[in-house]
Amino acid sequence: MKGIKNNIKEDEFKKILKPLLGKQEIELHRKLIKRLCDELGISILDYATALTLLNHPSLLVNNQTIESPNIDIEPPIVNKQKVVRYRLDVGRKHTVSVESIQSVLIEVSGVDKNRIGKLEIRNYYSLVDLPEGMPADIFQLLSEVEINQRKLNIKRVKYQPRSYRRNTRK
Q: Starting at the edge strand that comes first in sequence, how are the strands of the sheet with 155-156 ordered?
């Protein structure tokens, strides 16, 4: 019975991994992991093992349960991340696409594609939700980057409650 449970958990893990290996941005992650391994002086296998232990502590391998280590770090919860809305000076009239904006954000800022929130392309500008707490130097770089010969000129958008946005004339 224990062997069946092992196979089920391993099969579930394989089902999670297979689609990830086919994604376009996997090469960017390979370079990041290689750089981190070089900086930490560890092998890629040790890095992968640590990530697996962090994200799947109860995964069964070779009929043995891996106990969850006493780690103070909690894995990030993508759904509950705080985001900040930004305005980009490129829009539909400048022939940009969601993919082109996302690729620039990923390349320049290094933010994970899954952490880029809602992205709306309007006629003359675009709105994007990015994780809170990104370094200021990243935004300096993003403001100078161009898409189709048009600078992004990224600016933070202040939140306004709906009652202030509506026309309140009577």
A: 119-121, 126-131, 83-88, 155-156
